[in-house]
Amino acid sequence: MMNIDSTSTSREQPEARFETFTIPQHAEALISLAEKIIQQHAVEGAMSPVKPHLIADLNYRISSAKLKHDQGLKYARLMQEAFAERDVLLRKSIATGKEDRDVKSIIEAVMQVLQQHYAEKTEGFINWGFGTRQDL
Hints:
By secondary structure, the chain is mostly helical. It has helices at residues 27-44, 52-90, 103-117, 122-130. Helix 1 (27-44) packs antiparallel against helix 2 (52-90).
């Protein structure tokens, strides 16, 4: 019985060559690789060395993962758009032809009114969300 390994130098057996591959960690690259494997299995059909049940399991998992990935990308875009709109609303706007106050300056104006109104009553001032007078 002959022992065959990748370091064998026997003339009877060709040297075995194994290349190493790194399986991607990043979700998009992993999904892409899995899709390529599924596609190649379909191309090779009955001649594919990969068992159909492995491809079926991979296809099920990747289809679901890709759906969630795409959904996450959609929500990430919506989140970025919403934060951008929020930031516009919090800043001064001169698009209306007049210079509007930003949220901070409006709150400062409200605080000045409340400081005058509640000059002697700390608890009334606190009810408006400003905390204690020392926090100002």
